[in-house]
Amino acid sequence: MEVIAEAIEPLYVTRPLLPDMARVTEKLKTVWASQVLSNGGEQHLLLEQQLKAFLNVPELSLFNNGTTALMVGLRALGLQGEVITTPFSFPASTHVLSWSGITPVFCDIDPVSLTLDAAKVEALITPRTTGILGVHVYGNPCQCDALASIANQNGLRILYDAAHAFGTEVNGRSIAEYGDLTMFSFHATKLFHCAEGGALVCHNPELKARIDLMKNFGIRNEFDVVMPGINGKMNELQAVMGQLVLEMVRDEQAKRKHLRQQYTAYLQGVDGIRLRAVPNNTRDCQQYLVVEIDESLFGASRDAVFLTLRRHNIHARKYFYPLISDYPCYRDLPSASPAALPMARLMASRLLCLPFYGDLAETSVARICELIQSCQQGRVNGGR
Ligand code: T4K
Fold first, then answer.
1. Atom of ligand 1 nearest to the CA of 89
2. Considering the entire predicted model, what is its pTM?
3. Phi/psi of residue 274, each to 5°?
4. Helical (H) or strand (E) element with 292
5. CA–CA separation, 158 vs 170, rounded Å?
6. d(CA 100, ligand 1 centre) in Å
7. Which residues are 134's β-sheet partners?
């Protein structure tokens, strides 16, 4: 797709939190003095403690990225055979299954939470099914209670991908309390980040000890290698970045909340445009600003809006189009049949993530919303 954009400052879907350079340098001096750059140094330990407190979780293991954390999580839970998952996500959440020799089984999504439709999960269980990989997409909690009861009745384990849900709370409890394991991504595009990074949260120290072995080649000590492991370790530079970014997260969330109110004020009342929101019992982490565009009411398609914005150098993103089940590597799976995934298909054609980060100016929000509305009125040559 080639779109010639206006020669004005680009606006992106997100921008990373960047701590003050002087503070980074100051902290790095400690690392330099220690000469420890990886393998569970002091900074790693500090960040692990800070994140446990921030997220209010009992056990947490840091990783070099969220994808490795998912791979280790699957292995730690002993998942094999088939795992039921969502096609409406970033590629990593399904790729980790095929990299682990597991067959992904796609299940349609629920129109409200946009996560796995629990009512459709049970029909997909076969004798080969060992687990469920749910994604709290855009920070929307999965139907955790319903999935837990299906898992209990059928002897399945649950791994949650909370890449978009750092700090999300449901009924005052961390989202990571649900499921057997929860993964967080700390990639630069995330609200909280370490440039790259991730974590697995579990509920008991025995499992954490196993996970920590698995992410360090299975090395227990200098002479004992107790299992086949991988290198999933977070290094000290990532851990320094994480500590400094963590101090900025609350303030960033408040700024994003304010931006959400501005977007709402500009777009409410526009027929066919709806800002997606989390349920009332959920404390949103403010990762994404998602609008749903219903072409039949709005008069222009999501793709027309996307192209119009792109022509004006505004890089909104169609997360998550195309569906994972449409990738050439998965589309021949029986569960990838388009007829079985109508809601995921509909949402992948309607949703758009708009620029959303604390430093975004209100004038930019106004301009984005004006451009969106102009598609409806046909004032801008946006194309359909
Ligand atoms: N599960 C789910 C549900 C996920 O969404 C992800 C990752 C994972 C698992 C895997 O976790 P990790 O292994 O990554 O920890 C981005 C991120 O790269 C990816 O981490 C994230 N999901 C996904 C939703 O978004 P892209 O392909 O959109 O990245 P990119 O490079 O196009 O960045 C988007 C925009 O962000 C850019 O237009 C500009 C801005 N940006 C990006 C980077 C990297 C910056 O301003 N600075 C930066 O350093 O995937």
1. 3
2. 0.96
3. -135, 125
4. strand 289-293
5. 17
6. 22
7. 160
